[in-house]
Amino acid sequence: MAGPVQSIERAAAILRLLAAGPQRLGLGEVAASLGLAKGTAHGILRTLQLVDFVEQDAATGKYQLGAALLHLGTSYLDVNELRSRSINWADALAARSGEAVRLGTPLEGRVLVIHHVFRPDDTLQTLDVGALLPLHASSLGKVLLAFGTANLDAAVDTGLEAYTRHTLAHADELTHVLAEIRENGWGSEVQEMSMGEAGVAAPIRGHGGLVVGAIGLSGPVERICDGRGRPELKLLTVLREAARAISRNLGAARW
């Protein structure tokens, strides 16, 4: 049997690198990060650019993921059962709560946002579909960790980055909070990933009651939380109702 094709492995590594960061990367940064010669990295980037998997900024010369690749990702998400069975409920949840709604599943030690419904108002918002969030600093991620859908040991081993002074950056703190999430049936994050922002999430279950994803509300702290910094009860109520409805649609027993 033929072995792996090195050029494809390198191309995949470049695409993963570009997908992992929030900013565009220059040729030197790509080459250094992957241990490639600049000529090799440039040749692969040029090829990816020709098929629209990568785009190059004309002003800076730096690279980012291209439209064709993002389209392929969206095509995958469209057939993803969790997303397709959740869309209607997520739209309704945004309308009932007045807040942004995101659906997440674990991917390579992070949370992949597979669906995002904007907050139903006129404020400027950015689509998060395809974004990767930290497991330990997001409400979606903490729910996935709490119910074993994402690997806690792997998350701890890779390091719990402190995004703000509120981030749970120590394993014992995180373990304690995850136990509370399992008991309460929901998880939250208050200014742990970004100052001024908060979120609350609930598990989505499939056949056999296994947690297969999470659905969450997010927005400014003053909209998500009460004066004590806890999620508003009315938001928790509609969130958990949506999570139960999606879970029943996926074949989970009532609970």
From TrEMBL:
Signal peptide: none annotated. Keywords: DNA-binding, Transcription, Transcription regulation. PROSITE patterns: HTH_ICLR, ICLR_ED. It holds the Pfam family IclR_C. SUPFAM superfamilies: GAF domain-like (SSF55781), Winged helix' DNA-binding domain (SSF46785). Residues 68-252 form the IclR-ED domain. It comes from the Bacteria. The keyword Disulfide bond does not apply. InterPro entries: GAF-like_dom_sf, HTH_MetabolicPath_Reg, Tscrpt_reg_IclR_C, Tscrpt_reg_IclR_N, WH-like_DNA-bd_sf, WH_DNA-bd_sf. Residues 5-67 form the HTH iclR-type domain. This is IclR family transcriptional regulator. It comes from Streptomyces albidochromogenes. The lineage of its organism: Bacteria, Bacillati, Actinomycetota, Actinomycetes, Kitasatosporales.
